[in-house]
Amino acid sequence: MTQFGDFAPLCHTVPSYPWCNLFYRQIVDTNTSLLANASANATIAPVGVNPQCGILRVGADGSVGNIANIVVCAISILFTLLLIYWTSRRRAAVGRVEIRQFFVLYLLTLPFQLVTTGAFLEQGSTALTAVTGVHAGLVAATFWALLANAIVSTQVVEDGTLSSLIPFNFFLLAFFAATTYIALDVGFSFTHVFGPSDPLSSERSVPLFVLTSIWPGAAAIIYFLIMLYVVLGMLNEVRPVWYFVLAMVIFVLSQLDFFLLNKVICKGTSAKVDGSFVATILETAAVGVLYLAWRSITEETWDDDVYYPR
Predict the structure, then answer these.
(1) Which residues of 42-67 are buried (b: 16+ CB within 10 A; e: fewer)?
(2) Which residues, 6+ apart, have CB-to-CB distance to 40 below 8 Å?
(3) How large is the C-alpha radius of gyration of the chain?
(4) Could you point out which of 17, 180, 189, 272 has its C-alpha 20 to 30 Å from the C-alpha of 128?
């Protein structure tokens, strides 16, 4: 019976689900009978644990890895660098420092995603497990930065000041450190507090599931609701709302693609590519629309007009 926090169904049905990499090493160390098909051979195993359809590791049977998502991640990195540059130029804009930090964090997740889903490294290897753990921490921190930007937009504290940046960065580091530690504990079995029981009987970790699967969705929804309040209730604007609605719709579509169409695309291409590249395109598009939404409710420069008394 599937329990809350059980990754096994996701690892089985969702190709290139990176958090499943954390369980492979544990399975190899404790119960290899849980591995089947291509996953049984670590030298060619695809991302995850026993996926119904998975892209073999680079070099195995002519595989070039998850090439589509590799290319999309590279393009997304360049696009996000542009967003950071454009944001830095808007020096008088409210929340400039905070939203730039969000873009920087999203930028950092992309090379890690490229590695954890690209089928470069051998399953169960120390390198892949460590990179996946840090990737998990970055994702959790990124969604805190997203939510914190909504809080800053309410002007509860003045943006760009220590009263804003200290709690912003404190919780950012807390989410990163806690999630990374939990992910590494699952992957390397430092303890059995956060990971599966010993001996391993299932790919299950409630804390990891909450921080990597529940928290991002919850943070996105709360961000959306707060921004609707800010735009409609505080600014009395309507047009910017459509940017936030569009960003939310694109984000939801990216998740639907990843969890529902990913396997369909993988099987339809005989495991040459999967749907992760479409999800990455949509996620990056959502981040781009968030920039447009932020831009639409902020000023680009200070009012430098000289006042001449009559």
Answers:
(1) bebbbbbbbbebbbbbbebeebebbb
(2) 32
(3) 21
(4) 272
pLDDT digits over 166-223, tens only? 999 999 999 999 999 999 999 998 877 776 555 455 788 899 999 999 999 999 999 9
Amino acid 108 reads L
Token pair in block for residue 302: 């200070």
Q: What's the distance, CA 233 to chain centroid?
A: 30
Query: Shortest CA distance to 143 belongs to which of 226, 221, 216?
Result: 216
Determine contact, residues 55/47, Cβ cutoff 8 Å.
Answer: yes
**What is residue 57's DSSP assignment?**
P
Query: C-alpha 172: how far from its chain's center?
Result: 14
Report the distance separating Cα 137 and Cα 141, nearest Å: 6
Question: What is the pTM for the complete model shown?
Answer: 0.92
CATH number listed for the domain at residues 8-296: 1.20.1070
